[in-house]
User: Fold these one by one.
Assistant:
Number 1:
Amino acid sequence: MFGINRKARVFWPVCLLIVLVDCSSKSIVVEKLGAPDFPEAVADNVVRFTLSYNPDAAMGLSLGPFSRIGFALAALFALQVMRSLYRRAKEHDTWQLIALALVSGGATGNLIDRIRSARGVVDFIDVGLGPHRFWWVFNLADVGVTVGAALLALAIWRADQQAAPSSGAADFGQSR
């Protein structure tokens, strides 16, 4: 297909879709909700949209006044790591490529927010039961990074398991 290799055909659509859906959803939420910290029930008060701006990182991790630049640099570093893993991935490693695309797309989505606004990353998904919330407020980029990281760990573990030579009873006790 137009001279594009299989790796690119798997990676780029997923990565760009995550960035597009993340940025679009954040724009819609900011436009529709307007003011931060006023929850709007979406699914029977289990899932709410609560506009929030996070100048720090996940779970309240902060670098103080250096959070914006520090976490932007961390995202750029993570994207370089993803680039390196992408280059080493084999064309048939579909799940690893999807995982890399999810992490890369999510990191890019949140990086765009950090660059665009000093207020921080737009978060809006709020999950819990009534007043008892299960997680911090998050966004679709965070979902991409989290699901992608878990998938990547699983894909790498499976690849290691398949590459490891099976040791049988005949090898036991033999010196090398």
Number 2:
Amino acid sequence: MCSFKFRFRDQDGDVASDESYEFSDLFAAIAEAKRVLGEMALEGLPGPSDEASAVEVLNADGFPVARVGLTISVDLFAT
């Protein structure tokens, strides 16, 4: 088992979790980050001033090892 932490970025800013979670490997931690990002999206999608909502996966030492993000873009076309 490997220990990971998460850092969340949304319209409210960045928040790092102090709690560690045990996963079988990095890919299992990324799968959990995807699930959490889906829950974050239910609370609100990134707005015009937000670049993205994201969950960073941090290793046991607190260094980022992966990032799962959601970006919304709007393209306007002249009519």
Number 3:
Amino acid sequence: MALDQLEAFLRKMQDDPALKNEVLQASTADDVARIALKLGYEFSGDELLRISGKKVGQVTVHKNDIPGEYN
């Protein structure tokens, strides 16, 4: 299930400073999903956005609104 994969990735990210930095530099939720996929975690950017505002372990997911971005 994608939600399990997403939560597992976020838990890994909290313990890996280099991964956390890479995720924080990502421009979009789809970019974060691609980073996760390279590590074997499968979920979509849309699934990541759906949990915005929720906390998983020590990580709280926040959607960043980028000026000029289409919804």
